[in-house]
Design goal:
Elements: H1 5-41, E1 46-55, E2 63-65, E3 72-78, E4 81-82, E5 91-98, E6 106-114, E7 118-125, E8 130-139, E9 148-159
Antiparallel strand pairs: 1-9, 2-8, 3-7, 3-9, 4-9, 5-6, 5-8
Length: 160
């Protein structure tokens, strides 16, 4: 069968339309997969804040973790200063708690980290669902309430 020049052009256009649709479908699926993987790797939530004169016993705001991901629960302090301010060895000890109504909160343990420049407490992946907060239990290894800690805004970073 002989095709005219116009017929060949129409056939090529039809073929290229199929290829464009197929390429668009493949691109769309690849993009969806990449966005899903990036979303899974990122933390479910985060917030930033600051501390001014926080003493042992100070508790952070609460947050709710649905455990929709496998992200670690990490608290970071940057540029912290304790009230003494004599050395640049300032540190914080935090305990992470899951809040339980009418019962003592579940304690995931304490983490001590230097924070004069930047430091973090990493509790790893917390698989429990619920409301969480951390409490300062020591400032530069002092558990008495006479020392205080200041972290400028927005250098308290909570990821979960």
């Amino acid at each position: 069968m002989l095709r005219t020049k116009q017929g060949v052009t129409e056939a090529l256009l039809e073929l290229s339309g199929i290829r464009v649709r197929r390429a668009g479908l493949i691109f769309g699926l690849a993009l969806a997969l990449v966005l899903f993987m990036v979303g899974s790797a990122m933390a479910e939530g985060s917030w930033t804040s600051y501390l001014t004169g926080a003493r042992v016993g100070f508790s952070s705001r609460s947050w709710y973790d649905h455990h929709n991901d496998s992200a670690s629960t990490i608290t970071t302090f940057k540029n912290c200063r304790d009230e003494i301010r004599t050395y640049n060895n300032d540190s914080a000890t935090l305990h992470l708690y899951r809040e339980i109504s009418h019962w003592p909160d579940h304690d995931y343990g304490g983490k001590t980290f230097a924070c004069y420049t930047q430091g973090s407490a990493n509790w790893g992946e917390i698989k429990d669902v619920g409301s969480f907060h951390w409490t300062i239990t020591a400032i530069t290894k002092i558990t008495d309430n006479w020392n205080s800690l200041t972290v400028p805004n927005p250098d308290v970073i909570q990821k979960y």
